Amino acid sequence: MPTLTKLYSMQEASEHNSAGDCWIVVDGKVYDVSSYLEEHPGGDDVILQVTGKDATDEFEDAGHSKSARELMETFCVGELDPSDIPQLEVVSEKQKSYIPEKLVDLSKQYWAAPVAVVGISVVVTFLYLRNK
Description:
By secondary structure, the protein is α+β, with helices and mostly antiparallel strands. It has helices spanning about 10-15, 45-50, 55-60, 65-75, 95-110, 110-130, and strands at about 5-10, 15-20, 20-25, 30, 75-80. It is built from six helices and five strands.
């Protein structure tokens, strides 16, 4: 039987953003790490920078050990409400191809400037070498 945990919105988690009341969100779980700030090996400032927001990327980038992950579970106070998590937008095939088409259109439209620069450089070089 699944364990029932309290659901929090990201707004609720973000209200806990101080050293005395410090919550972070990692992988959809909400952690109250207020009592752990002074014990954190990386210093409390590392945690305070990500308090009240999703710290998944920062947590994963730090390369925490298995024991650190197990310790973190003791601070879990709930999970993010799934309805509050922003959904990724599905991009259609037509939208994907829009950017390359736009880039091709721009390159066709602005080809004259580089050609003019090269042309002027060739003429100046020819005139310079001819006068020598």
